[in-house]
Design brief:
This protein is α+β, with helices and mostly antiparallel strands. 32% of the residues lie in helices and 28% in strands. The chain has three helices and six strands. Helix 2 packs antiparallel against helix 3. The N terminus is likely disordered.
Amino acid sequence: MGSMAWEVIGVIDTDGGCAEWTFPADPGAVRTARSVVRRKLHGWGLESVADLTALLVSELVTNALRHATGPIGVRLVRPDELSDVLLVEVSDPLPEPPRERVARPEDESGRGLQLVASSSRRWGTRPGESGKTVWFELAVPD
């Protein structure tokens, strides 16, 4: 597992309720993002949402990679006041918001946002200083 570390540009990894990573716009980022997210959620005792979160993060990172050339950020937040919520953010340097479109059965891509919309409690996008962030909230079972 040690050889994967170089694929993560910057890791701001805290013990508390927040973890952030920055990935290069590289196809390997999807696999790395999935594994660090899963590992962090297991560390937080959130196995119940680890697989879903990893899946949604990899979909959003895949979407970002399709268009972005700059770094892609992934952030997990457990708000102190909301123990039953996991907030997930995926940011990229592209200013235009993603469009949720209905994927046809033969479409290879485009399911990411549909999946996020149907799996999460709330989701949305917001502009950032350089680019945008797609965020979603997952309900964490007690």
